[in-house]
Amino acid sequence: MPAFQTLHPVRHKPREMFNIVADIRAYPQFVPMCTGMLVRSEQERFGKTVLIADMSIGYKAIHETFTSQVILDPENLVIKTKYLEGPFKYLRNDWRFLQSDIIRDDDYCDVDFSIDYEFRNKALGMLMGAMFNRAFRHFTAAFEQRADEIYGAIPE
Questions:
Q1: Nearest to 10 by CA among 107, 81, 76, 80
Q2: Neighbour tally for 146: CB within 10 Å
Q3: Helix (H, G, I), strand (E, B) or coil at 73
Q4: What is the DSSP annotation of 111-147?
């Protein structure tokens, strides 16, 4: 039952950060431990985009692929991931992008990232758990760096 949550201010607008996280096809280029992403389907429903995607993760000799439903809600700047199949017993992942309350500046937003998961196989969970926790601590930094590359770093 590992879980991780962070509320992190970044020097980009909420819409920019939403767009970076919503571009799941690009994850293998910059997301820690992501070795592949295949979008199986994409549909528009009530102003939201619903994706079914296979994400491959790996570290050294260990490689796993899992399928999730990803709901992109651009109006509310929210992304919700629902686990469908793979090596997990469950996995929940949510992103919210808010005008920053931490740093009061229009060029900042607060990235609220949470993930909660458990591997089906206890041995795999023990082996991958520490690496996953380390990777999750770097997720927001990886997305912020990607935003800097796409939108340009905003000088402090």
A1: 107
A2: 20
A3: strand
A4: EEEEEEEEESSHHHHHHHHHHHHHHHHHHHHHHHHHH
Nearest to 146 by CA among 106, 111, 122, 118: 111
Question: In this predicted model, what pLDDT tens digit does every residue of 66-114 receive, in sequence order?
Answer: 999 999 999 999 999 999 999 889 999 999 999 887 777 788 899 999 9
Q: What is the pLDDT of residue 103?
A: 78
Q: What percent of the residues of the chain are helix, what percent strand, and what percent coil, each to the nearest 5?
A: 30, 50, 20
Work out the widest C-alpha separation in the chain, in whole angstroms. Answer: 46
Q: How far is CA 18 from the centre of its chain?
A: 10
Beta bridge partners of 55: 37, 66
Query: Of 131, 116, 95, 76, which Cα lies nearest the Cα of 23?
Result: 95
Six-digit token string for 150? 């796409």
- Residue 29: strand, helix, or coil: helix
| This prediction's pTM | 0.89
Q: Which domains does the chain have, with CATH numbers?
A: 3-151 (3.30.530.20)
